[in-house]
Amino acid sequence: MTRDQFNQQLGRTLWAIADDLRGSMNADDFRDYMLSFLFLRYLSSNYEEAAQKELGKDYPKLKEGEKQNPLSIW
Q: N or C: which end of the chain has fewer CB within 10 A?
């Protein structure tokens, strides 16, 4: 399977999954719903890095094995 064929198959599969998830929901409503989740995912992925950059040396350092969110310490 070539790269283009793979990408086309992947696109068809993703659309089929989106159609199944959407169910009877209007496509525009589903789009808004999914964009909200994508935006929240973007925020959560970049929040910690931005906080570390902004706080610099004041950013709390976690000890090895500690699972607490560093910003909850601050």
A: N
